[in-house]
Amino acid sequence: MNVPWRELRRGLAATWPFLLSHHEPSEYDRCYEPTIRGRTVRLCARCLGIYPGIAAGVVAYVVAPPPATSLALVAVLPSPALLDWSASALFDGDGSNPRRTATGALLGYAYGLGLMHLFDGRFVVLLVGLGYGLAAATLLTLHRRRTD
Questions:
Q1: Least-confidence region, from 88-97, 107-116, 120-129
Q2: Dihedral, 45, 49, 50, 56 alpha carbons, nearest 10
Q3: How confident is the model at residue 87 (pLDDT cuts 50, 70, 90)?
Q4: What's the whole-number mean pLDDT along residues 39-44?
Q5: Which of the residues 7, 42, 146, 147 has an alpha carbon 20 to 30 A from that of 136?
Q6: Side-chain half-sphere of 143: how many Cα atoms within 13 Å?
């Protein structure tokens, strides 16, 4: 098999900036920007909370008592992230990266719990996801109408 190495390198160079942060330059304020070995690395503030939150949700499901792993948390914990995003996107608020990280951690915890509940056959989690998906789609539509 002949691998087009030059094209692969070009593609990786173009996508590298989005590996740890999926934001365009106009939204770099939503990122932390540590310098590592002389290079600035952009880390999405919300995602920086989501990934450890997912791990915490999975671990909690295995070891924590039921109040800390209830389906109600799966339904409620994503709302701060959605509200925070809505406030900054729809009302031109600057937001705060520590708040984005905290709400991301809550969202991630709900993701982790939801995943584990889903593995246990509690398919109501899919309805929760559908509800948040519809809410996010509605808010994205409003946001795009405002910016167009």
A1: 88-97
A2: 170
A3: confident
A4: 89
A5: 42
A6: 15
Q: How many structural domains is the chain composed of?
A: 1
pLDDT for residue 45 is more than 80: yes
Tokens 């915490």 found at: 56
Torsion-angle region of 144 (φ positive above 0: left; ψ -120 to 50: alpha; else: beta): alpha
Domain limits for position 58: 45-147
CA distances from 32 to 16, 40, 80, 131 (A): 16, 10, 20, 30
The answer as to whether 12 is a domain residue is no
pLDDT of residue 114: 97
In this predicted structure, the answer to whether residue 1 has a pLDDT above a threshold of 70 is no
Beta strands in 38-136 (DSSP E): 39-40, 43-44
| Integer Cα distance of 83 and 129 in angstroms | 16
Answer whether residue 20 is part of any domain.
no
Please name the residues in contact with 68: beta carbons below 8 A apart, sequence gap of 6 or more.
60
Residue 68 lies in a domain: yes
Structure tokens at 2: 């002949």
